[in-house]
Design a protein that fits this description.
Number of domains: 3
Structural class: mainly alpha
């Protein structure tokens, strides 16, 4: 009896079975790649704002402390956004006729929120967590977690963009091993500074240039990941103990999902 199918069908059937098995894996990898891409996370993508604001100019060049604008970062879950009056405390004296600051002047004169030249209301939020995630800035800052750990090299941003993708696995790196992120820099301006004060002292030291920073501070200043040495981990562990960080609770679901 003659063969109904050509012998090549054996190869085709094997290939089709393998392709069918591989397809779900390929789809998962492609989907994961799209999910983690800048097109979705918006990492390194500056957003349009009513007024172009440069952290590089205000922090590195002028030396303005972060807390001058983000007034509640040490005592509240929300870091705070500066009121128009805060902006005008300087810009009533300098750049008084700058066209790009017209939305600020208009807001101040009319006592209304800032709008873009096109009439759109308010600032576009750069860093936003899902509604089911709770994050408290003051808890992290008061324990010495530097802003750049989460926001990237914010002091070097001409236009503000998201520095890190806030994936749960990324947060858990710190919650699993906080000693890798809480450490006392050997180059602090004063040894008497508290962990909270060291967070902001870092920007004073970073404004002097990358060449003046130790390897870990250099990585932090440029928003790069760093693998701490055993001595730095030991220093971080001491700080975890001194600050009474409840390490066993950091990985509990209710810590972030309330």
């Amino acid at each position: 009896m003659p063969n109904i199918f050509h012998s090549s069908m054996n190869t085709i059937s094997r290939v089709s079975i393998l392709a069918g098995a591989a397809l779900p894996v390929i789809l998962i990898l492609v989907g994961s790649g799209i999910t983690r891409s800048a097109a979705n996370t918006k990492v390194d993508v500056p957003l349009d704002q009513p007024v172009p604001f440069s952290h590089e100019h205000h922090i590195n060049e002028l030396g303005i402390d972060c807390r001058y604008c983000h007034t509640t970062v040490e005592k509240s879950a929300f870091a705070g956004m500066p009121a128009t009056q805060t902006c005008m405390s300087c810009h009533s004296q300098i750049w008084t006729n700058s066209p790009i600051l017209e939305p600020v002047r208009s807001s101040y004169q009319t006592n209304t929120p800032i709008r873009s030249p096109e009439g759109e209301l308010g600032w576009n939020r750069v860093n936003k967590l899902p509604e089911f995630v709770y994050f408290n800035h003051s808890v992290h800052v008061n324990r010495g977690v530097n802003c750049n750990n989460c926001h990237g090299a914010v002091q070097k941003m001409q236009l503000t963009y998201k520095g890190k993708a806030f994936f749960m696995s990324w947060c858990l790196k710190c919650h699993t091993n906080p000693e890798n992120f809480l450490y006392t820099s050997p180059d602090v301006t004063s040894k008497s500074l508290s962990p909270r004060e060291q967070v902001f002292d870092f920007y004073y030291r970073a404004s002097k240039g990358d060449s003046t920073l130790n390897p870990r501070d250099y990585k932090l200043a440029n928003g790069l990941d760093y693998k701490p040495s055993s001595e730095e981990v030991s220093s971080g562990a001491k700080q975890v103990e001194t600050l009474h960080v409840k390490t066993k609770q950091l990985q509990d679901c209710w810590t972030c999902h309330r």
